[in-house]
């Protein structure tokens, strides 16, 4: 017996109130002066006695009500020995369908073993079927009868995701809790060591599970794979360099032919000697890349027993240098420094081809901004509202805008297009600090930069500061708007308001922000299956996205196309993704290469895992009835609440009786 | 009672708002006398004494307008009392006289008003008046006199009287018997919380002496019918004895006993030739004055 919330017992102090009202007040009757007691007798008064009896009954009812109310809040409970489960058993057939199960016919063996287990099980036993990879999917709900389970087993197919035994154990715990049944779990897997979670506790299936592990893998299964491919996602030149790494697990030293295919055509081939259980890099320099997006593959030959990981897909795109539109009122100082910086950055950065096209406000009206990589605006005071509206619409549709807060911002006390409030500050400041992780400003050192005139920005909701002046004022602010974003620099690039344009950090700053605004740094050449690909930035956008799978089918439903913000490609191959902002990307997806390591879990670890599941289970342990019971708190608050209602009723009856008596006395007197 | 009636001034609650006792007495008696003009049956009359020339400040009601019609001069008619009676007021100042229901006038205050009114009435009649304030001892004794300033001395004596402890009739009446030299009128104002037989036994020797006795028995309405919603602890104001009283007892048995006490006292007083008059402190004073005048009339 105990209390779940004993602190509520402090409420018992409230019981003093009725005691005060009934007893103290009753016996502390205020003396009433009377002229003479000549006509009164000193004898017991029957009516007084009767009244007191009523008082005590009412007091007891009220005290009981209060105490029970406090008890209800304190949640009393007693420990009750209950069976571990309701006595029913549930047969759980779990099959590993991860990428590695394709090797050596493991998956077929697992399915056959599962079917045999199902056949040998009692027909009266309810069965459920789970498919295990990095997620756990219930293919057949718990039910008596084998047909559904058999069909579920037959429907399982390998996927390209990795397996996670931690996730599997968690799902077993949840299943036992939801069903309240004793789980008799049969797990069919190659039992890869790489699928174990870092903490052994995470694979505990829970006290109600009896785990039987069916390994379908040998102890030593050699496997070669293309572990990784390093290739630029986008190139602006004719040739590109591709580096791949070939790795062997539990393998002898061997020679393998490593080939690079582009759009199915052999682009290059090399012979590589892979050391025993080692890895070797294979470089393909000077691969000719035609214009457009291409499907690349690095393949090793001959294939082994897991041929799916002998190929590594990647995407590469060749594009013309993107154009940046720089808008100003005709004064050329900002544009000059910006253009010079971008051209200078071409020697040290991959995005070399960005050019700047200077344009006046008048020339910019009616311009289709979407054909530029991004637009830079030097707000020197002559930005007209129509153009501002046009730029705002461009940003909301997914465009990127770089705003230099100049005289125009000062004039209107707000940043153009963004609308952020800005106030002048003529205080000279030296130095600034930038975020170390953000791709637009990472690694930049603004120490020693002198800012003579700058604007103090008041951040709007959702804005993020990427760099701050030494007094903490925002210097570079990123503000998402719609599908696009605005990057605001709180000063200008005219070498008058600051000396930043002639500082060494200026060129990398311009280059990095240009890459960031042009999305040219976005996307790797290949993604792991199951990882998300971004479809849209704004959740409320109505623009549709689209994903075309390796088989050429559209993978998004209508609802997903208009609302989903990410998409997780389920299997290897090439996916054509059209984002909500209109940009198209070719995404190459490969299986998690941890699955290529077929090394099984050591026997002693397996033994521990198996024992963890069986030692507490009634089936394997064969313990007595006492072992099958556990102590659980049984809350009494419902019973107490019923008693509260009864006490409240009694109190009402007694109080009503008392008051009606009092009214009669009053009326008769 | 109509709002214009002069006796409206006799309401105890109204009188309680007048701070000076002489004003109380004048208010009561003047209002009472004015009311008597419409009640000739009571025969309040005064004997003509003389005419006096009017001087500013005199009451115009006393101007003889017949003389004015004939002589065009204003004269006042002056009267004097028919007899000279010696009035002695015995004022009970025991602690029980201090009882008052919530917001009401206490018995002691009511008794003071009554005593002052009687003294003023006697002063108007040119009667000699005296005062004895008593509780278990004689607290103040002012022998009857009609000398100049006696009226104000009596009012002062009444006004400054304070409550004592218990009631004991024997001691003050014994003292009165010793000083009483001629027959007169003795008015006893008390709540008479005592055995009626004992009271009459104490007063009867005065009656044998030829003195007329009037007992004004004052009781608060709350004393007649205590209102109790729940049991209460009653504390005797004289003895400080405490007793728990139930509403049931107060409603039934106590009322029967107090009614019996009143009846017994009235019967015994009448049997002894003593005038007895019961007054509730929520009733106007004129009833007491009527009783006094009736007795005085009888003495003519």
What topology does this entry show?
The complex is a heterodimer of chains A (669) and B (300).
Chain A: E1 2-3, H1 16-27, E2 31-34, H2 46-74, E3 76-83, E4 89-96, H3 106-120, E5 126-132, E6 136-144, H4 147-155, H5 165-179, E7 182-189, E8 209-215, E9 223-230, E10 234-235, E11 239-249, E12 254-262, E13 265-274, E14 279-288, E15 292-301, E16 311-318, E17 323-327, H6 333-345, E18 355-359, H7 361-364, E19 374-379, H8 385-396, E20 400-405, H9 407-412, E21 421-425, E22 429-430, E23 432-434, E24 450-451, E25 454-458, E26 464-469, E27 474-481, E28 484-489, H10 506-517, E29 527-528, E30 533-534, E31 546-548, H11 558-563, E32 566-567, E33 573-578, E34 584-590, H12 603-614, H13 618-621, E35 629-635, H14 637-668
Parallel strand pairs in A: 4-5, 4-7, 7-8, 10-16, 17-18, 17-19, 19-20, 20-28, 29-34
Antiparallel strand pairs in A: 1-3, 3-35, 5-6, 9-11, 11-14, 12-13, 12-15, 15-16, 21-25, 22-24, 23-26, 26-27, 27-28, 30-32, 31-33, 33-34
Helix pairs in contact in A: 2-14, 3-4, 6-10
Chain B: H1 12-15, H2 21-36, E1 47-53, H3 65-71, E2 75-80, E3 86-92, H4 107-124, E4 128-134, E5 138-145, H5 150-159, H6 170-179, E6 185-190, H7 196-208, E7 212-219, H8 221-224, E8 232-236, E9 242-245, H9 247-251, H10 253-271, E10 275-280, H11 286-298
Parallel strand pairs in B: 3-4, 3-6, 6-7, 7-10
Antiparallel strand pairs in B: 1-2, 4-5, 8-9
Helix pairs in contact in B: 2-4, 4-5, 6-7, 7-10
Could you walk me through the main structural features you see in this protein, from its secondary elements to its overall organization?
Chain A is α/β, with parallel strands linked by helices and 669 residues long. Among the domains of chain A are: 92 residues; 156 residues, Rossmann fold; 195 residues, Class I glutamine amidotransferase (GATase) domain (Rossmann fold). Chain A has 14 helices and 35 strands. In chain A, the strands form nine sheets. Chain A has an eight-stranded mixed beta sheet, with helices on both faces. In chain A, a hairpin with a 4-residue loop joins strand 26 and strand 27. In chain A, helix 2 runs antiparallel to helix 14. The longest helix of chain A has 32 residues. Chain A is flat. Chain A starts with a strand and ends with a helix. Chain B has 300 residues and is α/β, with parallel strands linked by helices. Chain B has a single domain, classed as von Willebrand factor, type A domain (Rossmann fold), CATH 3.40.50. Chain B is built from eleven helices and ten strands. In chain B, the strands form three sheets. Chain B has a six-stranded mixed beta sheet, with helices on both faces. Chain B has a two-stranded antiparallel ribbon with strand order 1-2. In chain B, helix 2 packs across helix 4 and helix 7 runs parallel beside helix 10. The longest helix of chain B has 19 residues. The N terminus of chain B is likely disordered. Classes of the chains: A alpha/beta (669), B alpha/beta (300). Chains A and B meet through strand 2, helix 2 and helix 14 of A and strand 8, strand 9, helix 9 and helix 10 of B. Strand 2 of chain A pairs parallel with strand 8 of chain B, so a sheet runs across the interface.
């Amino acid at each position: 017996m105990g209390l779940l919330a004993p602190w509520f017992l402090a409420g018992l102090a409230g019981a003093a109130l009725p005691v005060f009202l009934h007893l103290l007040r009753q016996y502390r009757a205020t003396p009433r002066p009377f002229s003479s007691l000549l006509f009164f007798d000193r004898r017991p008064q029957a009516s007084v006695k009767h009244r007191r009896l009523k008082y005590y009954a009412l007091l007891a009812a009220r005290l009981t009500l209060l105490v029970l109310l406090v008890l209800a809040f304190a949640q009393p409970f007693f420990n009750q020995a209950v069976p571990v489960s309701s006595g029913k058993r549930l047969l759980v057939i779990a099959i590993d369908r991860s990428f590695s199960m394709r090797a050596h016919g493991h998956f077929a063996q697992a399915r056959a073993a599962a079917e045999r287990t199902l056949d040998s099980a009692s027909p009266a036993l309810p069965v459920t079927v789970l498919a295990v990879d990095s997620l756990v999917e219930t293919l057949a709900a718990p039910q008596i009868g084998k047909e559904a389970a058999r069909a579920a087993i037959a429907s399982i197919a390998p996927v390209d995701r990795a397996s996670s035994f931690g996730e599997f154990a968690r799902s077993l715990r949840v299943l036992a809790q939801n069903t309240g049944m004793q789980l008799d779990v049969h797990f069919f897997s190659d039992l890869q060591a790489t699928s174990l979670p870092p903490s052994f506790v995470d694979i505990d299936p829970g006290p109600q599970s009896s785990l039987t592990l069916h390994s379908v893998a040998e102890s030593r299964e050699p496997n070669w794979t293309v572990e990784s491919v390093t290739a630029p996602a986008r190139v602006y030149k004719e040739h590109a360099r591709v580096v791949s790494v070939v790795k062997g697990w539990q393998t002898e030293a061997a020679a393998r032919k490593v080939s690079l295919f582009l759009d199915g055509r052999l682009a290059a081939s090399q012979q590589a000697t892979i050391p025993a259980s080692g890895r070797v890099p294979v470089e393909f320099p000077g691969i000719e890349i035609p214009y457009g997006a291409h499907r690349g593959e690095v393949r090793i030959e001959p294939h082994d027993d897991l041929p799916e990981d002998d190929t590594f897909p990647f995407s590469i795109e060749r594009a013309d240098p993107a154009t940046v539109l720089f808008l100003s009122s005709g004064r050329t100082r900002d544009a000059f420094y910006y253009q010079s910086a971008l051209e200078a950055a071409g020697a040290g950065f991959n995005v070399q081809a960005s050019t700047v096209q200077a344009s006046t406000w008048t020339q910019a009206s009616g311009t289709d901004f979407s054909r530029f990589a991004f637009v830079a605006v030097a707000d020197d005071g002559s930005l007209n509202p129509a153009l501002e509206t046009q730029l705002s619409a461009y940003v909301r549709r997914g465009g990127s805008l770089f705003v230099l807060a100049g005289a125009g911002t000062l004039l209107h006390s707000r940043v153009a297009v963004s609308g952020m409030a800005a106030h002048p500050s003529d205080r000279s400041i030296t130095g600034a600090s930038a975020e170390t992780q953000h791709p637009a400003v990472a690694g930049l050192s603004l120490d020693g930069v002198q800012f003579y005139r700058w604007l103090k920005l008041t951040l709007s909701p959702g804005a993020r500061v990427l760099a701050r002046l030494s007094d903490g004022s925002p210097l570079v602010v990123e503000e998402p708007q719609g599908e696009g974003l605005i990057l605001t620099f709180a000063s200008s690039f005219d070498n008058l308001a600051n000396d930043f344009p002639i500082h060494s950090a200026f060129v990398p700053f311009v280059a990095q922000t240009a890459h960031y605004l042009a999305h040219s740094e976005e996307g790797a050449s290949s993604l792991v299956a199951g990882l998300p690909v971004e479809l849209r930035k704004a959740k409320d956008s109505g623009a549709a996205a689209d994903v075309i799978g390796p088989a050429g089918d559209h993978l998004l439903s209508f609802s997903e196309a208009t609302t989903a913000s990410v998409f997780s490609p389920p299997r290897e191959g090439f996916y054509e993704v059209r984002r909500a902002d209109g940009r198209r990307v070719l995404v190459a997806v490969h299986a998690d290469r941890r699955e290529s390591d077929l090394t099984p879990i050591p026997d002693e670890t397996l033994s521990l895992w198996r024992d963890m599941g069986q030692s507490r289970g009634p089936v394997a342990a064969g313990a007595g009835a006492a072992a099958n019971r556990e102590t659980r708190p049984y809350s009494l608050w419902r019973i107490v609440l019923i008693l509260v209602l009864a006490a409240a009723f009694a109190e009402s009856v007694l109080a009503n009786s008392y008051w009606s008596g009092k009214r009669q006395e009053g009326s008769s007197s | 009672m109509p709002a214009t009636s002069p006796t409206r001034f006799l309401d105890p609650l109204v009188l309680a708002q007048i701070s000076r006792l002489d004003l109380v007495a004048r208010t009561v008696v003047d209002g009472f006398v004015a009311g008597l003009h419409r009640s000739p049956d009571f025969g309040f009359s005064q004997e003509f004494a003389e005419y006096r020339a009017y001087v500013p400040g005199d009451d115009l009601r006393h101007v003889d307008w017949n003389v004015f019609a004939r002589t065009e001069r204003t004269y006042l008619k002056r009267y004097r009392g028919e007899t000279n009676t010696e009035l002695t007021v015995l004022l009970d100042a025991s602690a029980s006289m201090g009882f008052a229901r919530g917001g009401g006038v206490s018995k002691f205050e009511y008794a003071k008003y009554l005593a002052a009114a009687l003294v003023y009435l006697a002063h108007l009649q040119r009667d000699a008046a005296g005062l004895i304030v008593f509780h278990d001892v004689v607290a103040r004794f002012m022998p009857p006199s009609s000398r100049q300033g006696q009226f104000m001395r009596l009012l002062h004596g009444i006004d400054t009287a304070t409550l004592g402890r218990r009631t004991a009739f024997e001691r003050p009446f014994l003292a009165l018997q010793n000083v009483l030299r001629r027959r007169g009128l003795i008015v006893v104002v008390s709540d008479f919380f005592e055995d009626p037989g004992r009271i009459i036994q104490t007063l009867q020797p005065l009656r044998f002496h030829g003195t007329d006795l009037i007992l004004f028995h004052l009781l608060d309405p709350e004393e007649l019918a205590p209102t109790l919603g729940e049991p209460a602890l009653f504390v005797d104001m004289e003895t400080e004895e405490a007793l728990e009283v139930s509403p049931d007892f107060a409603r039934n048995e106590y009322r029967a006993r107090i009614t019996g006490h009143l009846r017994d006292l009235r019967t015994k007083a009448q049997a002894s030739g003593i005038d007895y008059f019961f007054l509730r402190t929520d009733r106007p004073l004129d009833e007491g004055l009527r009783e006094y005048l009736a007795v005085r009339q009888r003495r003519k």
